[in-house]
Design a protein that fits this description.
With 189 residues, this protein is mainly alpha-helical. Helices cover 66% and strands 4% of the residues.
Length: 189
């Protein structure tokens, strides 16, 4: 409820001020709150040393969850790097706008486009948001105890984007009533 009230306050106050810097900082604050809360939930629920002793007895489960945590932290690092990098480029673009415009005119098209900081902000924050959403989907499956049903498919941290896919192992364990996915549900009789 607090975040909803905070978002409403920020929206109303922004419409009163009409100051983009306030809007940018408020967005950064809200994003930071949500990301840190998700990090906390991830650590408390998946790290074996933080779990209660009754949930901490199976070594295979602990090893699986530690492997998941390592991958999740890599996703968080990549996502935050892209997000903050995009924001930093846009900030530099705002500060050095006259100089960058002059350079863009000298370079001409298509190379001048590379100096469009606002465009790089969209790319960086878009990719960073994709990493966060993918991480949040995987975290939700883990918090629901469905680590065996879904897995991260991310062949390379540099050249590919991560995605959460249904585990091939899980398909063999589901009975016919559970094995339906979108578009394959049985017709009602």
């Amino acid at each position: 409820m607090f975040l909803i009230l905070l978002a409403v306050f920020i929206t109303v106050y922004y419409h009163y001020l009409q100051d983009p810097v306030f809007h940018q900082n408020a967005y950064a604050l809200l994003t930071t709150i949500v990301v840190f809360r998700s990090m906390y939930l991830m650590e408390v629920n998946l790290r074996p040393s933080f779990r209660s002793s009754d949930r901490n007895s199976d070594k295979a489960v602990n090893d699986r969850d530690l492997k998941i945590l390592r991958s999740m932290w890599l996703m968080v690092a990549c996502g935050l790097t892209l997000f903050i990098g995009g924001f930093g480029i846009w900030s530099l673009d705002s500060i050095y706008c006259p100089e960058l415009r002059a350079w863009r005119r000298k370079m001409g098209l298509p190379w001048g486009i590379l100096l469009e900081g606002h465009g790089w902000w969209h790319i960086g924050t878009g990719l960073g948001a994709y990493f966060y959403i993918t991480w949040a989907i995987w975290l939700r499956h883990c918090l629901n105890g469905r680590q065996e049903e879904y897995e991260l498919d991310w062949p390379s941290a540099i050249t590919t984007l991560p995605q959460i896919v249904r585990s091939e192992r899980s398909d063999t364990r589901l009975d016919s009533k559970q094995a339906h996915s979108n578009g394959k549900a049985r017709k009602k009789q």
